[in-house]
Specification:
This protein is an alpha/beta fold. It has eleven helices and 37 strands. The protein has five domains: about 90 residues, no CATH class; about 150 residues, 3-Layer(aba) Sandwich (Rossmann fold); about 100 residues, Immunoglobulin-like; about 240 residues, 3-Layer(aba) Sandwich (Rossmann fold), CATH 3.40.50.880; about 70 residues, Immunoglobulin-like (Sandwich). It is about 20% helix and about 35% strand. It has an eight-stranded mixed β-sheet. It has a five-stranded parallel β-sheet with strand order 4-3-5-6-33, sandwiched between helices. The longest helix has 24 residues. The two termini are about 60 Å apart. This is Glutamine amidotransferase. Keywords: Membrane, Transmembrane, Transmembrane helix. InterPro entries: Class_I_gatase-like.
Length: about 700
């Protein structure tokens, strides 16, 4: 294809040439008014002069016609595997590809929509934008999408230069039932009701046989599920009571309904972190001493702790007849604290307390029973623990993990974790900890100066002190816990004596271990999921030297065994990648753990019934159409821009008739000297004619 046109390259700006042309017309008009015979030649001379200044040229263009482009997009996301949608897509893809390539001067471009990464769903908008960006928009004659119409990025859909046609897979009879979690808390208070709002919803052409009720199963932490009948389409509020701290995995599932599209959206998993609602601690200080405020400062610094603190300032032997009302702001409410409301406390701390008749023996029996029912007691012992006023001499001695020998070791010594303490979560990993024996050149903590000698330890001795005597002993009594710290010199670390030590961290761990914090359990099986992936770090914390393999039960019921190597004393860990998303169960010895990888109901299956609603605005704006493949594969026609681009059994593409210029040649009408010669000849001829007239 060739084209010829005239182009100009003026030596002067066009406004200047226009002014010169106006001046020339004026002069010619004057010559004509005066009757000069050479006015016509003068006019031609002016025209030649303007032509020379405008520099006209003839442009020869050689053009090559370009083919039209039709973009064919096939959706291969997970929802397209339901029913016979994949077969519908394959059949339509084969026929449409043949028809498009058979159109004159037309090329076919293909694009495929895969599953979005990290449960992003169908990213049709992004794929379509990328495919159009790779092609000249002026050549795009049409876009055909083979899909169920369910996309999850409608905001990414581009403006289209040609009609968009959606050939929708699926069937008009399709329907589905799904479980929808509307609201679920991330945290819940242990022992209090936590409400989860959910709904069972039907979509599509729901048959009458589906019924108006469904059976919902609920399982917490992999335990045996409980079944409940629920009404379809009704908002439900499910109250749950969390029994333990840390992660609580709640699994919901519906009995599959016959004929529904998929059961993948019949399940949901909710992870709720169980927390305590403000731990209540009772601190009883026996007498003022240098470290009395150690425990108080520690507990008051924790915003999650409610502290009740009493200090006995006047022991019985110092009675002087002064009325009690004049010595204290309030009376010591012994009956209320140790009888009526003792079960409201999570921990009772005795800091250098001596039995001097203030608390009757029956109260100590009640404290002992409180521990055996699940409470916790921590004893920070001073010199009085080695005397006849020792708590060991009370009924509380039945549950204390060691007894005093009666000796007070007043010498400087270095607190050390024992071999067992290197594994125990209370003492493992403390910053700057010295080895159990010797210094080995390690920078260690400051020394303490006093210790109560203990013997007959029946619990776990995790720290030792002077003369290798037990310093910190931890034990269980019934359902509760008891901790015994055989020194009142932990405050030396806080004051920085000889460099100090991790006083705050150690005392915090002791207190929280006694209150059964999950992170400080001696025997624990943990699973840390890497967000956005199927990678899991499985950790076993144990007081033993070895750990047996972990049995992993997959969602399909198959079992895999995983060996955990030791990474540090008492801690075994291994990274593992799950083969697929779902609910996995971990079991090792008598410990079990449930973990959820990915969503129980992937985004692709949230609304699986085919619909072109999300694409409707783009289809309308482009002049395209939506047609169901179950009604047949439409034919393809070429229609002019602006015409109707779809009809019964056919869809249209608009030829763009675009061409590419391959060569351009410019040829001047006359060279510059020829224009000047023409002007000179015309002016001379006009002068001769006018001069001859005057001579005659």
């Amino acid at each position: 294809m060739n084209g010829v046109s005239v182009v100009f390259a003026p030596l002067l700006p066009w406004p200047v040439l226009a002014l010169l042309a106006a001046l020339a017309v004026l002069l010619i008009a004057v010559a004509l008014w005066r009757g000069l015979r050479g006015w016509a030649l003068r006019g031609f001379a002016a025209l030649a002069l303007l032509g020379g200044l405008a520099q006209p040229s003839v442009q020869h263009e050689e053009k090559t016609p370009l083919s039209d482009i039709v973009l064919l997009v096939d959706d291969r996301s997970a929802s397209q595997t339901l029913s016979d949608r994949a077969a519908q897509t394959d059949a339509a893809l084969m026929r449409l590809s043949t028809e498009i390539t058979a159109l004159p001067n037309t090329e076919l471009r293909r694009a495929t929509v895969p599953d979005g990464a990290k449960n992003a769903g169908t990213q049709l908008g992004a794929v379509l934008s990328e495919a159009l960006a790779a092609e000249p928009r002026g050549r795009v004659a049409g876009v055909i999408v083979l899909s169920d119409g369910r996309l999850h990025d409608p905001e990414a859909l581009p403006d289209l230069p040609a009609p968009l046609h959606l050939l929708r897979t699926g069937h008009a009879r399709d329907w589905d039932r799904r479980l929808l979690i509307e609201t679920a808390p991330a945290f819940g208070i242990i022992g209090e009701e936590t409400v989860i709002r959910l709904k069972v919803e039907d979509t599509g052409a729901v048959p009458a046989a589906a019924g108006s009720t469904a059976r919902l199963s609920i399982s917490i932490d992999g335990e045996a599920p409980q079944d409940y009948p629920v009404t379809v389409g009704q908002d439900l509020e499910l109250p749950l009571k969390l029994e333990h701290g840390g992660q609580n995995v709640v699994q919901f599932s519906l009995d599959p309904a016959p004929g529904q599209l998929t059961a993948r959206n019949d399940s949901a998993i909710v992870s709720i972190n169980g927390v305590r609602d403000r731990l209540r601690v009772l601190l009883v200080s026996g007498q003022p001493h240098a470290g009395e405020r150690t425990w108080r400062n520690l507990l008051k610094s924790d915003a999650g702790v409610d502290l009740v603190h009493f200090t006995i300032l006047r022991p019985p032997e110092k009675q002087d007849g002064t009325p009690v009302s004049e010595l204290s702001l309030i009376a010591f409410p012994t009956q209320e604290l140790f009888l009526d409301k003792i079960d409201e406390f999570d921990l009772i701390i005795f800091d250098r307390y001596a039995e001097r008749g203030i608390l009757p023996g029956g109260y100590f029996e009640n404290i002992r029973d409180y521990v055996e029912r699940g409470g916790a007691v921590l004893v920070s012992a001073g010199p009085e623990f080695a005397t006849v006023e020792s708590l060991w001499q009370t009924p509380l001695g039945d549950i204390l993990p060691a007894r005093p020998t009666g000796r007070v070791l007043s010498e400087a010594y270095l607190p050390r974790p024992t071999e067992l303490g290197l594994r125990h979560p209370v003492t493992a990993g403390l910053t700057g900890a010295p080895p159990p024996e010797g210094d080995a050149g390690v920078t260690h903590w400051g020394r303490w100066l006093r210790q109560i000698e203990l013997t007959g330890a029946r619990g776990e001795v995790v720290m030792k002190g002077a003369q290798n005597a037990p310093l910190l002993v931890l034990d269980r009594a019934g359902k509760g816990r008891v901790a015994l710290l055989a020194s009142d010199h932990a405050w030396l670390w806080d004051r920085g004596y000889e460099g100090g030590g991790p006083q705050l961290e150690l005392l915090r761990r002791i207190a929280h271990w006694a209150m059964k914090e999950p992170d400080l359990e001696e025997e624990a099986l943990q699973a840390e999921v890497d967000p956005g992936s199927l990678s899991v770090t499985i950790t076993r914390r144990t007081m033993k030297d070895t750990a047996s393999p972990v049995q992993i039960t997959r969602p399909d019921g198959t079992v895999e065994s995983l060996t955990l190597p030791q990474v540090e004393p008492g801690r075994f860990a291994q990274s593992w990648t799950a083969p697929a998303e779902g609910l996995y169960r971990l079991k090792q010895d008598d410990l079990e753990r449930v973990m959820a990888l990915g969503p129980a109901s992937p985004r692709e299956y949230e609304t699986p019934v085919a619909s072109g609603e999300a694409l409707a605005p783009v289809i309308a704006a482009s002049g395209g159409s939506e047609q169901a493949l179950e009604d047949g594969i439409p034919d393809i026609r070429q229609v002019r821009p602006g015409r109707v681009a779809a009809g019964r059994g056919w869809i249209g593409v608009t030829p763009r008739e675009v061409s590419a210029t391959t060569d351009i040649r410019l040829t001047a009408l006359l060279p510059g000297w020829a224009w000047l010669l023409a002007v000179a000849v015309l002016v001379l001829a006009a002068w001769l004619i006018e001069g001859r007239r005057r001579g005659s």
